[in-house]
Amino acid sequence: MRIDGQQPVQRKYDVNKMYQQPSVKPPSFAKDELYISNEAKQLNDNAQLNIREMKLLDIKKRIDAGEYQINAHEIAKKISQFYTT
Hints:
By secondary structure, this protein is mainly α. Helices cover 64% and strands 0% of the residues. It has helices at residues 8-20, 38-65, 72-84. The longest helix has 28 residues, at 38-65. The radius of gyration is 39 Å and the shape is elongated.
């Protein structure tokens, strides 16, 4: 019996292996993206500025009218809380 080379039966199995292996593509993942328009950014900035401006204007009006009172004890409490925590 000679054992060199492939036997005809073995060649048939090799051919079948080629047909059974599916072609595998590497998965392609799409990247998530977030886009915020310039208009939306501008609206957000304006909203934040308007709230701050309104608070400042209210405080300025109360100071000019003499109605704005500063409580020294409350300020001292806040400062001591800040440094103790």
